From TrEMBL:
Signal peptide: none annotated. Keywords: DNA-binding. It comes from the Bacteria. Residues 151-208 form the HTH luxR-type domain. This is Helix-turn-helix transcriptional regulator.
Length: 229
């Protein structure tokens, strides 16, 4: 009769063979939150040197900036193990070694053996998509949220307002968020329209679509770390 460890190893090898060919980041950890395997996409996502041997390492032992969130990653592992079900979080960090914060959805799923025992956790990560009202109305696919913007015609304050305008928030709602007067917001929107050479919100939404501003999110609105959802 095969030993439990041998049985578990059989399941792990099957998962690894599958993950090896996936383009999204995937990895496997044991119940002590020690890494067992990461595919190449996961190495790139975590900005981990390919020469670094991850086997048996915990998150705080990685030579990466995100290691400062190790306690949250371990809590994610434990929640998955205890719930015996999929658990998703939003991970916001400098993924892929980029200079800007980027939110990703990370899912962790329990790994079962033939005895229906959980003996590990597998994880993956995908960019957090945004579906603005404009995209929904036009039946467009969601795009990846980014804190980077190519446009140089708007000030940072105007970019902050643009993000909330695209969420169809009113002038009063935007003013409340930033704790400033509605008159100030109205002036910013006027300047935004002038710079965009538009006169209505609908025209401006079209402008943002082609200027690729409809996927922008101000970095002050997202914080580094883990958000359980």
């Amino acid at each position: 009769m095969d030993s439990p460890d041998k049985n578990n190893e059989f399941y792990l090898q099957g998962l690894i063979a599958m993950m090896e060919h996936l383009s999204d980041p995937w990895g496997i950890k044991d119940l002590e939150s020690r890494h067992i395997y990461m595919n190449k996409a996961a190495y790139l996502y975590t900005n981990t040197p390919l020469s670094f041997d991850i086997a048996g390492k915990r998150d705080d032992e990685f030579p990466a900036d995100w290691a400062d969130c190790a306690d949250d990653f371990i809590e994610h592992d434990k929640m998955t193990e205890m719930s015996r079900d999929r658990v998703a979080v939003i991970e916001t960090h400098y993924w892929y070694g980029k200079d800007s914060l980027t939110p990703f959805i990370s899912e962790k799923l329990p790994i079962y053996n033939d005895k229906k025992q959980v003996f590990g956790v597998m994880w993956n990560a995908k960019p957090l998509n945004t579906l603005t009202p404009l995209k929904y109305i036009n039946q467009q696919k969601p795009s990846v949220l980014t804190t980077e913007v190519n446009s140089t015609i708007f000030t940072q304050s105007e970019l902050d307002v643009i993000f909330l305008m695209l969420q169809r928030l009113s002038v009063k709602e935007i003013a409340k968020i930033y704790n400033i007067s509605t008159k100030t917001i109205e002036n910013r929107i006027y300047n935004i329209y002038q710079k965009s050479d538009v006169h209505t919100l609908q025209q401006f939404e079209e402008f943002c679509k082609y200027a690729r501003l409809d996927s922008y999110i101000p970095d002050r609105l997202i914080a580094k770390g883990i958000q359980f959802i």
